[in-house]
Write a structure and sequence with these properties.
By secondary structure, the protein is α+β, with helices and mostly antiparallel strands. About 25% of the residues lie in helices and about 25% in strands. A hairpin with a 2-residue loop joins strand 7 and strand 8. The chain is globular.
Length: about 525
């Protein structure tokens, strides 16, 4: 660090900023980064970290984020340290739109973290883009977070009462400010003390002038792994697919509650908090993670293929009653292959995905909105006309998108549409970092399977069971968070917390939080302690 303290350069604003002025130097954006008509669960966030002296870490982090783009498309950012100064660039939009040769050249250094975001707490505006910055111990910190805290409101009120300023409306800043507030010169100790205060799901990458840290919550709800480049340098990433992209060899997943510290002395690991249990989000296996990622030592393409086989066993359609199995791309593809293999019904393509329409800054007019799912998916009429179709998809949330797809297939000439879904019925909301509907909007929370079938207009409908998922993965159900399916939350949810993802947008106090939670949904199921999970 220089004698006058490290300075933080915000490249996006184009000028050096005193550490506590960083956010003020960023011009705020408005609204979502793009148009998307889709009721599927939204990806959370992707995080990446790298300690590699002699390597262009900003460039490698760019490619790591590119591999994690599926986890968040609203904003992205990279923070880099050269040992004295942390520099950062972040903006709204996709990784490839935000970074170019010029911006990467202005991020010199040997330590980097990166983040791709989909908002689960806080609106989608530039000030909420990550990494987030704050001053710590005379220097600077940058933090990237994947997950969602369930006690962020209370902690924020506590910190504000102590005079701590906040410049964003997301829970990730609560983590950063808590770390910075710890009275210790040891960064990993400050992180451990923060872990003792925060509750919820979180995987973190943290950057100081001379150190990279990775953190996973005591339940391991969100994934984080460590790998190694050929030169012995260490890499952190949400998914193994990002390690593969930058040429790093997978070492292992971080254990729940673990802190990994990487600096000039190498890699050290410690428990920041005792492991509570393994409770990785099941949707990582069903939908979120890329099929070439491995979780719990299992490659997800093969896991999803086995999900399709289990689905065919649980909800069979004999070959004489169907002509073709088609996936809804992309996550439905391996499951559809497995269903076809198990059932003996031929596999085929019936729908083409437009990979470029779902993220556009041009808002559609009413006529285009009415086209709905056709802006993203187009039927192949020759493959569907007169056919009895088995349609395999990953999930049904509100039912609106699925009903549009079913109607589209019938209009393209299908004579029957048998819908098979690899996720069990989603009946409960997520508080751990998945942006899905409130419970009163979840179709399975208030309709039977037969009612849902009628709602979406399908010939038949079948969901894979929790036991079927467990068999497909080859692990017991107690290794996962299944709360959105069975209402059993591994991390207890306070009654007062049943609030929207915009809970931190307005000034809030602990009494106000309690008052806001007043009315309880009649279909809300009370939290059951984790040890009661069957």
């Amino acid at each position: 660090m220089t004698e006058d303290g490290a300075r933080l350069m915000d490249i996006h604003a184009g000028k050096p900023a005193a550490a506590n002025d960083l956010q003020a130097s960023v011009i705020d954006g408005q609204g979502k980064s793009g148009y998307e008509e889709d009721d599927s669960p939204k990806e959370e966030c992707g995080i990446f970290g790298l300690y590699a002296p002699g390597v262009e870490v900003a460039r490698l982090t760019y490619f790591g984020l590119f591999a994690l783009q599926h986890r968040g498309q609203e904003s992205a950012g990279i923070a880099v340290s050269d040992g004295n100064t942390i520099r950062m660039h972040k903006d709204m939009g996709l990784v490839a739109h935000i970074f170019n040769e010029d911006t990467l050249a202005k991020l010199p250094g040997h330590i980097a973290i990166g983040h791709t975001r989909y908002s689960t707490t806080g609106s989608s505006v530039l000030r909420n883009a990550q990494p987030l910055h704050c001053v710590w111990g005379g220097g600077n910190l940058a933090v990237g977070h994947n997950g969602n805290l369930i006690n962020a409101g209370e902690l924020r009120c506590e910190l504000e009462a102590q005079g701590v300023p906040f410049e964003t409306s997301n829970d990730s800043e609560v983590i950063a400010r808590l770390i910075a507030s710890q009275a210790t010169s040891s960064l990993d100790e400050a992180v451990a003390r923060t872990m003792a205060r925060i509750k919820g799901a979180y995987s973190l990458v943290i950057l100081s002038e001379d150190t990279l840290i990775g953190v996973r919550d005591p339940y391991g709800v969100r994934p984080l792994c460590v790998g190694q480049l050929a030169g012995g340098h260490y890499v952190l990433a949400s998914e193994t697919c990002a390690l593969n992209t930058v040429g790093a060899e997978f070492i292992r997943e971080l254990a729940p509650g673990e802190i990994v510290t990487i600096d000039k002395d190498g890699l050290r690991a410690r428990h920041g908090q005792p492991m509570a249990r393994h409770a990785m989000c099941m949707f990582e296996f069903i939908y979120f993670a890329r099929p070439d990622t491995s979780l719990y030592g299992r490659e997800l393409h093969q896991v999803r293929r086995r999900m399709g086989r289990e689905l065919a066993r649980e909800h069979p359609i004999r070959g004489e009653f169907a002509d073709v199995v088609i996936p809804i791309p992309d996550t439905g593809i391996p499951a559809a292959i497995g269903f076809a293999e198990q059932s003996g019904i031929p596999y085929g393509e019936g729908v083409i995905k437009n990979r470029y329409i779902q993220r556009t800054f041009i808002q559609p007019d009413q006529r285009m909105r009415e086209l709905g799912v056709r802006m993203k998916l187009m039927p192949i009429k020759e493959a569907l006309t007169g056919k009895r179709v088995v349609m395999v998809d990953d999930s049904i949330v509100r039912g609106t998108t699925t009903s549009q797809i079913v109607r589209m297939l019938f209009e393209a000439g299908a004579s029957e549409v048998h819908v098979r879904i690899t996720a069990p019925p989603i009946k409960f909301p997520c508080f751990y970092g998945i942006d899905m509907a409130d419970q009163d909007q979840l179709v399975a929370a208030h309709q039977s399977v037969e009612d849902i079938r009628a709602t979406i207009g399908a010939t038949t409908l079948g969901y894979l069971s929790i036991d079927g998922l467990s068999r497909a993965i080859g692990l017991n159900r107690d290794q996962f968070c299944l709360a959105c399916f069975n209402g059993l939350y591994p991390i207890e949810i306070p009654d007062r917390l049943k609030v929207s993802k915009f809970a931190l947008e307005l000034p809030v106090s602990a009494p106000a939080l309690a008052a806001k939670a007043g009315a309880k949904s009649p279909i809300w199921r009370e939290t059951v302690p984790a040890e009661s999970v069957p």
